[in-house]
């Protein structure tokens, strides 16, 4: 018996959007209007690339960014939940699929000593250039029309499961924990024994209920959460069964 836990990152593990949190490093903690208005739907990663150039141009260094990012708060109950998963790693494989970036997630998880809880992190690759600017790239290319250009979480999940099967690992149940619109595509890929756990009051929960109203509900079970303690109670229940 083994369970796969799939986590989104922003507004799920941390209680904010890591990409907008970095703006605290900008002069006067805000971006110029021209830059802010340059975002085009589906092209968030390119937009963040421009934000990082702006920060670099204004002399914001890696150390300051790291200090700022490690002050981002975890979602209520998340520290307890990750501690619990860490104590039961033999039963849980745990991955992150996120539209943030490798640098931010790495900093935040390592500062809180949670990096060992996760087996893999799938997110946009980022690195500091020789001139000290943070750069970010799209995670992959895909053909899904529902997802942003840089990341289809369903594709990531499917490829991960295929790779695990080749290694002889299959899961009793997949538990998908997220909040955003881009979490709907992987949730629609889940089977009836799996469970989607959308954050209460956020886009994913609203989209799942909309589907149910349109009489095309998702195949998996759905259980909303408002604190990560709700998720932990569910996992404890699973282990009892």
Automatic annotation (TrEMBL):
SUPFAM superfamilies according to UniProt: HAD-like
UniProt-annotated catalytic positions: 8, 10
Domain of life: Eukaryota
Binding site for substrate: 19, 99
Pfam families associated with the record: Put_Phosphatase
Keywords, sorted A to Z: Hydrolase, Magnesium, Metal-binding
GO MF annotation list: metal ion binding; phosphatase activity
Cofactors: Mg(2+)
Residues annotated as binding Mg(2+): 8, 10, 179
InterPro entries on file: HAD-like_sf, HAD_hydro_PyrdxlP_Pase-like, HAD_sf, Pase_PHOSPHO-typ
PANTHER family assigned: PHOSPHATASE, ORPHAN 1, 2, PYRIDOXAL PHOSPHATE PHOSPHATASE PHOSPHO2
Family to which this protein belongs: Belongs to the HAD-like hydrolase superfamily. PHOSPHO family.
Protein name: PHOP2 phosphatase
Protein's organism: Haliaeetus albicilla
